[in-house]
Design goal:
single chain; 291 residues; mainly alpha; Endonuclease III, domain 1; three-stranded antiparallel beta sheet; 15 helices; globular
């Protein structure tokens, strides 16, 4: 496949088929883009959308969130999962106000210096919020490029420097167009070139895709075993946090004791929540969200 073919085809497809998501709107702020990227980590769009809308209505700027208690960010996070992301967003807001005049920085190195912001998120914000030319490489993009360009059934388990280089080579030189190509790659990988049962006949590069040309068949089943949730510490943490999140004030320890019958597992989960800063001791007998 010629280097420019995948980018050209992906953008043309995206212009016709992309989902209408508010963080992709021309009116979306860099803060809105940053919030969306953090929320979308390991979480589907359908679950993120209502929470993002509520969050942006309540805290439309970093200064708005920074002025509120971190516990309120955890409360508003609801059941999105991995609630430490809510704390990181609150910490980001505080740093953005203190060090960047309340404006989300535009440079990748400055974004990487924000709490909890990694390589993917920093490049995604720089590209999608500031229309810069950066390889934005998530699982969907790696899979698309592995199949269409390298002819492999899938990409490796983690993003490598080679992945960033491979995707960068596919981007046009013009920054605005490169940013659009980046989001088009992600959407195409998410909706068409999926991990299992890809919709190859709907793909704009079906005739030039190296994997398709090889005649190989993409996996029809799960590419990896899903993590167990039932009866794990993660489930217990979620149940404990739900009680605190839904309460308007401190919660007695005796109330939390009713959440899970296994005292050792319950105590282990609560100790973890306290260590992560997601829960605080109000006094010896009561706990609550951070203030």
């Amino acid at each position: 496949m010629a280097v420019h073919d995948l980018a050209t085809a992906a953008v043309a497809w995206y212009d016709e088929h992309a989902r209408d998501l508010p963080w992709r709107s021309p009116d979306a702020t860099p803060w809105g883009v940053l919030v969306s990227e953090v929320m979308l980590q390991q979480t589907p769009v359908s679950r993120v959308l209502p929470v993002w809308l509520d969050w942006m209505e309540r805290w439309p700027t970093p200064a708005d969130l920074a002025a509120d208690a971190s516990g309120e960010a955890i409360r508003a996070w609801g059941r999105l999962g991995y609630p430490r992301r809510a704390l990181r967003l609150h910490e980001c807001a505080v740093v953005i106000v203190a060090s960047h005049g309340g404006e989300v920085p535009s440079e990748v190195d400055q974004l990487l210096a924000l709490p909890g912001i990694g390589s993917y998120t920093a490049r995604a914000v720089a590209a999608f919020a500031y229309r810069q030319r950066h390889p934005v490489v998530d699982t969907n993009v790696r899979r698309l490029v592995a199949r269409a360009v390298a002819g492999a059934p899938d990409a490796g388990p983690t993003t490598t420097a080679r992945d960033l280089t491979s995707v960068a080579e596919l981007l046009p030189e013009e920054p605005e167009l490169a940013a659009r190509v980046s989001v088009a790659f992600m959407e195409l990988g998410a909706l068409v070139c999926t991990a299992r049962n890809p919709r190859c006949t709907d793909c704009p590069v079906e005739t030039t895709c190296e994997f398709r040309r090889s005649g190989a068949v993409a996996p029809a089943g799960p590419t990896r075993r899903p993590q167990r949730y039932a009866d794990t510490d993660r489930q217990v943490r979620g149940l404990l946090l739900a009680v605190l999140r839904e309460s308007s004030g401190p919660v007695p320890r005796t109330r939390l004791d009713m959440v899970w019958s296994d005292a050792d597992q319950r105590d282990r989960a609560l100790t973890g929540l306290l260590a992560d800063g997601l829960v605080c001791e109000v006094d010896h007998d009561n706990l609550g969200l951070p203030r």
